[in-house]
Amino acid sequence: MTGDDRDDEHDRRAEPPRRRRRPREDRPDPDDRDDDLPGRNGRIRSAGVAARRAAREVADLTGRTPEGIVSIQRSEDGWVVGIEVVETRRIPDSADILATYEAELDAHGELVSYRRTRRYSRGRLREE
Prior knowledge:
This protein is an alpha+beta fold. It is built from two helices and four strands. A four-stranded antiparallel beta sheet has the order 1-2-3-4.
């Protein structure tokens, strides 16, 4: 064995093992995370958990995929979450019709009410 062969063998042993990524279909769905479970007293303590639950409820009721959370506020009895969805897709995307829904959750994360508060074209800015 030559000196070069020993160096190569040493280099191979010194490399840390590489982690293999699971195929996408085997990875856990972020919507199925355990942090969506309520705290010890059954109440939702995290704004992120409340937002995900509200978005899921609006998606189930409207049949539309949420684009994002536009507001969240803790209330006396739970959470009020603003969710933006695409109501009508158009070409170009700047002509899409968007809507903002307000979902109210109780302290345990159950949907109390929801309503559409605004409907607008993606390319239009709202004067406030």
